[in-house]
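Why should sequence recovery work at all? Because a backbone constrains its sequence more than one might expect. Tight turns favour small or flexible residues, buried strands favour hydrophobic ones, and helices have their own preferences. The token representation captures these environments compactly. In the example below, the structure is given first.
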């Protein structure tokens, strides 16, 4: 790949992409304001877990991957990719200022002919808005002097290297030349390019995430309904899905993370009747409180010792952003419990210490490592009749709330 590319924002999306492009032969400037992140990269250390990226970093750092803090590096690039965070504020309104401010600041550095690729997840209409900013604040005309396309990232964290080459790349542009140029760039690292207009691409990305989020929400709602009827969802899940081609009901779980919890608000802010998305958020965000209410029916929480296992928002990764584990901790504290945290990928206390004499074990994340834990081991460390909350069915009991006694029988005297 004979290209010089600047990537602005070397987070979970930007850094793996930078390394994939470097591996494909591009000269890549990575731009980030985090001194801590840049220092880690200078030490040739990945700042987060992402399978295969450590080797790519070691191979390409200072060879064809050049991280730094200066936006001026964009001047050398024929393509600039924006992978900045797009969070929501305390009223769940999308915050777009990082992307907007960076676009305004980088404009003076850009050469005519530069292609800008917006890869952050954004509200519908944002690419058009960026064009307006560019054309109001510079002499550039999009489609003539500068080119712009929205090319969303759809990988699952931790699996970027595996998924970037195989997930069809949606390319949404405002003009044909921008579409062609962005498509040609991604065609060098991925198999299939799906070309469309920018707004359709923005909607497609958000619909992908919300479809999954609603899927998880209905699984969580069905769990709650089954419990009202004195039934466990896991038995019913099997009845629904077993050899049934129109099945596919997801299992319940804690559904948070930096994308799913907020991306719906990029859609609902202008659509008051988007109740399904808002309701999915309410259901998913309520799961920790719902489970804790159930635990309270078995054991008083005031003064109890509770072990939360799993802090990252999903299994086998080290990203705790917007993880519902922390919401559970907050609720448990309010109930008067002493809460201890363990996660094999996130800085926390050792498992043995966290389980020691615990009254309640709350399995918040379904890390594979927790599958090696047995109820017998827990009994040797925790209270003999500890209450387990296992929404993921990691112990395979098919029950979400149970005591060790109920599964293992009482401790022999
Ligand atoms: N994390 C995911 O799995 C995922 C998947 C698909 C899409 N997305 C979307 O991609 C975007 C980026 O997500 P992320 O998880 O990589 O975010 P992130 O917070 O991990 O990364 C953002 C990076 O930008 C840097 N940054 C902030 N302001 C900057 C500035 N002014 N100039 C240069 N760098 C700056 C930060 O230091 C950080 O390293 C978001 O819009 C997100 O919704 C994320």
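From this structural description, the recovered sequence reads:
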């Amino acid at each position: 790949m004979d290209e010089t590319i600047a990537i602005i924002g070397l987070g979970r999306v930007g850094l793996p992409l930078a390394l994939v492009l470097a591996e494909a032969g591009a000269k890549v400037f990575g731009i980030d304001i985090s001194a801590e992140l840049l220092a880690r990269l200078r030490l040739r250390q990945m700042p987060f877990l992402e399978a295969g990226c450590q080797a790519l970093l070691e191979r390409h750092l200072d060879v064809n991957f050049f991280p730094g803090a200066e936006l001026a590096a964009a001047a050398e690039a024929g393509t600039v990719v924006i992978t900045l965070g797009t969070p929501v504020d305390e009223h769940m309104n999308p915050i777009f200022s990082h992307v907007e401010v960076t676009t305004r600041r980088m404009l003076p550095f850009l050469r005519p002919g530069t292609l800008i690729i917006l890869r952050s997840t954004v509200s519908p209409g944002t690419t058009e808005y960026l064009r307006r900013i560019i054309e109001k604040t510079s002499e550039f005309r999009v489609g003539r002097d500068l080119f712009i396309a929205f090319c969303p990232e759809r990988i699952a964290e931790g699996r970027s290297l595996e998924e970037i080459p195989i997930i069809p790349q949606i390319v949404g542009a405002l003009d044909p030349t921008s579409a062609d140029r962005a498509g040609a760039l991604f065609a060098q690292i991925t198999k299939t390019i799906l070309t469309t207009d920018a707004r359709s691409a923005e909607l497609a990305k958000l619909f992908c995430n919300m479809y999954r989020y609603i899927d998880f929400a209905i699984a969580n709602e069905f769990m709650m309904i089954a419990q009202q009827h004195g039934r466990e969802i896991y038995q019913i899940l099997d009845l629904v899905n077993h050899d049934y081609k129109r099945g596919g009901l997801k299992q319940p779980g804690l559904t948070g993370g930096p994308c799913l919890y907020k991306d719906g608000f990029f859609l609902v802010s202008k659509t008051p009747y988007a109740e399904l998305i808002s309701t999915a958020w309410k259901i998913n965000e309520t799961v920790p409180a719902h489970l804790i209410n159930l635990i309270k029916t078995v054991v008083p929480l005031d003064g109890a010792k509770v072990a939360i296992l799993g802090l990252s928002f999903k299994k086998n990764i080290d990203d705790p952003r917007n993880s519902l584990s922390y919401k559970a901790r907050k609720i448990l504290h309010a109930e008067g419990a002493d809460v201890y945290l363990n996660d094999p990928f996130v800085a926390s206390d050792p498992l043995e210490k966290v389980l020691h004499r615990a009254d309640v074990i709350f399995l918040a994340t379904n890390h594979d490592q927790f599958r090696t834990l047995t109820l017998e081991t827990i009994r040797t460390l925790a209270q003999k009749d500890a209450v387990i909350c296992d929404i993921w069915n990691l112990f395979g009991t098919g029950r979400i709330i149970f005591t060790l006694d109920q599964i293992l029988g009482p401790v022999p005297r």
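A few observations help interpret the result. Residues 71 and 102 are 9 Å apart (CA to CA).
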